[in-house]
Amino acid sequence: MHHLTPWWAGGPTTLDNGALLCARHHTIVHTQLLHGTLTNGRIHWDLTPGRMPQQPRLSDTA
């Protein structure tokens, strides 16, 4: 399951925050940093590379 809101950003492991993806598509989502949102029970994908929220590095927070 892919977390739509990442777990590190407080996204729960729930059906409302998840997208079931095969291994290939899950890899594509993470490699291209694609972002999905749940609206009215459907997942809408923004296919613009780089839109997935990224976990801040320790050096970025100082």
TrEMBL record:
Domain of life: Bacteria
UniProt source species: Barrientosiimonas endolithica
Listed Pfam families: HNH
Protein name per its UniProtKB record: HNH domain-containing protein
CDD domains documented for this protein: HNHc
Domain HNH span(s) in chain numbering: 1-31
InterPro entries: HNH, HNH_nuc
